[in-house]
Structure formats: structure tokens, C-alpha cells
Amino acid sequence: MVWRFIGLVVYWFGWQRIFAFCDSIRLIMSEHRHPLVMVCGTFDLLHPGHVFFIEEAKRHGHVIVVVARDETVKRIKGKLPAETLGQRMAAVERRFPDVTVVEGSASDFLESLRKHRPDTLLLGYDQKLPPGVTEADVLCPILRAGSHRPELFKSSLMKRETEAPNRTGKRSMPG
User: Fold this and answer.
1) Does 21 lie in the same domain as 61?
2) pTM of the full predicted structure?
3) Over the chain, what HEC string results?
4) How many structural domains are present in the chain?
5) Taking a C-beta distance cutoff of 8 angstroms, is the pair 35, 61 a contact?
6) pLDDT tens, 72-109?
7) Residue range of the domain that includes 23
């Protein structure tokens, strides 16, 4: 009985009108939810610059934080982060319990975008898309965050003032 009804509707209206109607319903439903904003990064040694970045993303909607896997960080930056993936994800979750924290794909940056379908991708003030990915590949608009005292809080410039353990558990002196 149901299939007969569906067949009649398709016959009367045609597939194109039905798909257009479904798209209209999806659009109306999406207007009643908070926009989904995705941010991606290493988030190693979570610092005020990271906090500023995620807070800015929260002003645009519900945030999904994609934390890069260790092997991805090594491939792109040439070195492992000071903290493990689990430690970095836990630090973000502790500081931002109202955001969704997920681990990034080991091989495909766009996988998280396809899976979560954000309304916006927010990049850091100096963040680049991964090698081989262009703005045309990204499935949503890209916004650029402002900076928060980059002379103090840029991850690549951060130095520890005291002795700290490295990823092997041994202690090393900063320098």
C-alpha cells in the first residue's frame, strides 16, 4: 500500500520536484540548529592561543575540534608533538567540555569534513591547509580566525622555562 502511494506521488510530481522539496525541508531544518564549526590542529601543550582560537570558533556555532594524529603531525611538521594524541584530546576536552573532540584521519584531511559536514571551517590566523588540499576541495566556507598575541603564544615559538619530560619519558633541558 505504501509503495503504491509513493509510486503515485512520484508519477504526479516527478523525482526532481521531490528532491527539491527534500532539499527545502533540509534547509528549513538546518536553520533551526546551531551552525557547525570545525577547527583542526595539533593542540600540543594547550595554551592561551589555542583557547582563543576555540573560543572564537564557539562564537560561530557548535564546535568540532579535530586533533591531528601523531603520524600526521610528524609528516607535516617533521617532528612528533610533545604530548600524545590522547593527552592532547583530553586537554581540549577538559578545557572545553561543550565542544566535540575527535581524532583526525591518518591519511585524509577531508575525511572529517565529509563525515561531520560542518557549515564552516575555521582556520587559525597563520594556519595552512595540509599539502595537496586546496580551498576548492573543502566542502564548506573557510573563515580565518584572528590572532591572540602570537609573539607569546604561537606553538612553534613556545619554550618551556623549566625542565620537561619528552615523549620517551626522559627529561631534557630546553634550549
Assistant:
1) no
2) 0.69
3) CHHHHHHHHHHHHCHHHHHHHHHHHHHHHHHCCCCEEEEEECCCCCCHHHHHHHHHHHCCCEEEEEECCHHHHHHHHCCCCCCCHHHHHHHHHHHCCCCEEEECCCCCCHHHHHHHCCCEEEECCCCCCCCCCCHHHCCCCEEECCCCCHHHHCHHHCCCCCCEECCCCCEECCC
4) 2
5) yes
6) 999 888 999 999 999 999 999 999 999 999 999 988 99
7) 1-32
